[in-house]
Amino acid sequence: MKTEGIPFLKVMNINEFGFKTKNIDYIDLKTHNVMKRSQLHGNEILYSMAGTIGIAVNYNHKFKYANINQAISKILLKDISKNQLIVYLLNSNLCKLQSKRFLTVSAQPNINFEQIKSIKIPNLSENQEINILDTMDNAYKVKKQKEQESKNLFNDIDNYLLDKLGITLPDEPENNIENRTFKVGFDDIFNDRLDANSYTAYYQNIFKVLETTIVTSCDYIAKKIKKDDIDTMPVFFDILISIVNNESIKNLIIIFIKKENLYILINIIFYISIIKNNTIDDSIKEICYFYDWLKNYAKLTKFSEFENLYKTYKETYIPQDYKIFVAMEFYQQDNVYKAIKGTIEKVAKDMNLPLECIRIDKVEKGNTYQIMDEILKQIQDNRLLIADITNKNPNVYLEVGYAMGLAKSRGIENQIMFFLKIDEDAKVGFDLQSYQQNRYKDTEELREKLESQLKVYYGKLII
Q1: Strand ranges for 328-393 from DSSP E
Q2: Alpha helices, DSSP H only, in 105-246?
Q3: Are 293 and 313 in contact (CB under 8 A)?
Q4: Strand, helix or coil at 50?
Q5: Taking the C-alpha atoms of 327, 328, 329 and 331 in order, what is their torsion angle to the nearest 10 degrees?
Q6: What is the pLDDT of residue 443?
Q7: Phi, psi values for residue 177, rounded to 5°
Q8: Secondary structure (3-state) at 104
Q9: Residues 6+ apart with CB under 8 A from 202
Q10: What pLDDT score does 463 carry?
Q11: What pTM value is reported for the model?
């Protein structure tokens, strides 16, 4: 691939925001002169017609000389002052839907020149054109600004983390043929990474720096890895990269950095993902659950010997996601509660989940407590609320209202399942009439509907 000469643009080099110059191919001047029909002179609109269909961009003298491949068409307007307006319209859903109607599938999706000409553009007044240009110009400007701010933020986070870990990455090498060329044997990549860049001298140096730093700073990991084990650390680096990109783990990273013990979090990630052999998704959940237990149940702010703590956590802790608070009128309703509790236990067994049914008058705290305070605390601490709203019990309605307000303040959907026994007096309060209610005739139908709902609910939760 040439790295200098005349830019040879492909669909991959354009998007509705402009040009992506990172991976542009080049052709020599002789080839450019032969390809006269596809030369660009400055005032064209480029429009993708093969592969990814319907991307328009205003060329506007981007390069002094340039050429395009057969997947891009040129549009020349008599009035070039309208170029940017037409680009905005071609990139709108109105025009994109028209282009999709013409799609034919052979080796790749494509449309032809006549079909491009037939795309209908709205006939706008001068004021409408000005409004569209102003609105879209401002929107793209804000978008680019936000993207740059996000990029700067991520760069700052990377630098901050590396500084806290005491890691100094090697300088990026000069972009010349010597640094871009390397040789790797088949034995070196067998059962290893397949991305070519990872085998360049630059990235190999990064891997060495990271491996040396983490193993040196984390004595725990160093002791867990056998002397002749050369596979574990590269695997752990891949897992670590995937895990730390999770939003919940990013929050934990900030917490551990503030406590100046980020290395402990790295050790925990290593233990849960490598030693306990969890998948990445399961590791993320387990790390978050373990920290929640350490903070809210064990009440520990500082700790180092976490393996024994983890064993205790596994033996005693049920995450909030799996605790279910039951709100209902309990007087003379034992059969209903037993149906709910029995169904929860059955689903827990069927789905291999540690579900726990919480009934307020059965909560044991070892001391006297205010019932209402404990009810509100249980609703706060548990994820799901099952509410039997039969008989319009005021206490149940209070608990439902509190759960709804709590969900709204947290910016999440209501985590409530409503159940109502059907009889002559079955009525629902006005505020709850618009919510889905699982209506049942007897406890058998209650069991069936509750089991179905719980399996759908936790099926989504554990994906």
Answers
A1: 356-358, 384-388
A2: 113-117, 126-165, 177-180, 186-189, 201-217, 219-224, 232-244
A3: yes
A4: strand
A5: -90
A6: 92
A7: -65, -35
A8: strand
A9: 170, 172, 173, 179
A10: 45
A11: 0.40
d(CA 10, CA 1): 14
Cβ–Cβ under 8 Å, residues 378 and 354: no
Half-sphere exposure of 90 (CA within 13 A, CB side): 25
* Angle made by CA atoms 185, 186, 188, in degrees to the nearest 5: 70
Q: Which two tokens stand for residue 346?
A: 């059955």
Is residue 342 predicted with pLDDT exceeding 90?
A: yes
User: Per mean pLDDT, which range of 84-88, 121-125, 141-145, 216-220 is the poorest?
Assistant: 216-220
How much is the CA Rg of the chain, to the nearest whole Å? Answer: 31
Name residue 266's amino acid.
I
DSSP for 294-306, written as a single string: HHHTS--S--S-H
Beta bridge partners of 323: 356
Strand pairing of 104-105 and 109-110?
Answer: antiparallel
Pairing mode, strands 18-19 and 25-27? unpaired
CB 21 within 8 A of CB 13: yes
Distance CA(333)–CA(216), nearest Å, equals 62
Residue 377 tokens, joined = 């605390």
Residue 136's nearest CA partner among 98, 97, 91, 95 is 91
Find residue 105's DSSP bridge partners: 109
Q: What does the CA dihedral 179, 183, 187, 192 come to, rounded to 10 degrees?
A: 30
Residue that the structure tokens 């795309």 belong to: 119
Residue type, 461: L
Average pLDDT, the chain: 81
